[in-house]
Design the sequence.
């Protein structure tokens, strides 16, 4: 079936009524567009596991801070539609801001605790904006499964918690980060990088690999792990670390080296020039 583009909530609901009543499974891939191979992997997973695949393309103003890149966030719906058609998506839902938020939003979803820590401390209100739009998309699409990249690791944990707390009847599927050959995690924001900045970007995954190696060799003290990440990043003059977080992979709680968790999540945000890149890795503790 050719890809259908839907821009209104009423049309989306109308279009999904029949498959839902027929008991067909619906896979949802929420995105902010400017799609790359990482998104394509999410769509492929949704295609494998569901009868109907819905991809949303919406740059959600609620999750951007006043000094962030909402206005200049890259957008290209024609290219997105081409990629989605190639990967067999059925429907792209690409609403306007007015369609999603016809009046100032008074009702938000706040996953307390988890949203305020780590990346949430750096970006106040960010996870509230994410949880609110994702909750709304779940409500509109009523998917059987929804697919999210592990690159935004804290976002994935926030969404899992929201789904559990609010009993959304769906399965959340986390999909491993997709990387370029030099290890750089794919991100729509990579387009901002100059050639010199792009050449510096592999330092993020290198710093995580160094930490993973140390954990495999028995290092579990978060201060030691952080020092390894920071010293690797320090070797790249263009890289300015904004966040280096080491936490229990399942709860994002801080780590007691005397009682380490079964797996450790490493999460970093690094400025390269004007661009803030993030990366993550989950490492089992042996
Ligand atoms: O990860 C993203 O692209 C966004 O945060 C999401 C989940 C689509 C919500 O706007």
Sequence:
């Amino acid at each position: 079936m050719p890809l259908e583009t839907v821009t209104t909530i009423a049309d989306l609901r109308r279009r999904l009524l029949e498959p839902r009543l027929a008991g067909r499974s619906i896979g949802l891939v929420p995105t902010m567009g400017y799609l790359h191979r990482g998104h394509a992997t999410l769509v492929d997973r949704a295609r494998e596991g569901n009868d109907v695949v819905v991809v949303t393309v919406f740059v959600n103003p609620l999750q951007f801070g006043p000094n962030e890149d909402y206005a200049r966030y890259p957008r290209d719906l024609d290219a997105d539609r081409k990629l989605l058609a190639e990967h067999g998506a059925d429907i792209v839902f690409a609403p306007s801001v007015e369609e999603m938020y016809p009046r100032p939003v008074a009702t938000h979803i706040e996953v307390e605790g988890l949203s305020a820590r780590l990346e949430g401390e750096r970006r106040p209100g960010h996870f509230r904006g994410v949880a609110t739009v994702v909750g709304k998309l779940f409500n509109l699409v009523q998917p059987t499964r929804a697919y999210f990249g592990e690159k935004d690791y804290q976002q994935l944990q926030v969404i899992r918690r929201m789904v559990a707390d609010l009993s959304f009847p769906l399965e959340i599927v986390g999909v491993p980060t997709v990387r370029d050959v030099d290890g750089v995690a794919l991100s729509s924001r990579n387009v901002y990088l100059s050639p010199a900045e792009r050449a510096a970007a592999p330092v993020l995954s290198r710093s995580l690999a160094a930490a993973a190696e140390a954990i495999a060799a028995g290092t579990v003290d978060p201060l030691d792990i952080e020092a390894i990440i920071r010293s690797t990043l320090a070797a790249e003059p263009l890289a300015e670390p904004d966040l280096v977080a080491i936490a229990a992979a399942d709860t994002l709680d801080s780590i007691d080296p005397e009682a380490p968790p079964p797996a450790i999540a490493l999460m970093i945000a690094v400025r390269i020039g004007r661009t803030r890149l993030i990366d993550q890795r989950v490492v089992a503790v042996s």
Observations:
- The first helix runs from residue 9 to 21.
- Residues 30-32, 60, 63, 130, 133-134, 152, 155 surround pantoate (CB under 6 Å).
- The CA atoms of residues 152 and 279 lie 8 Å apart.
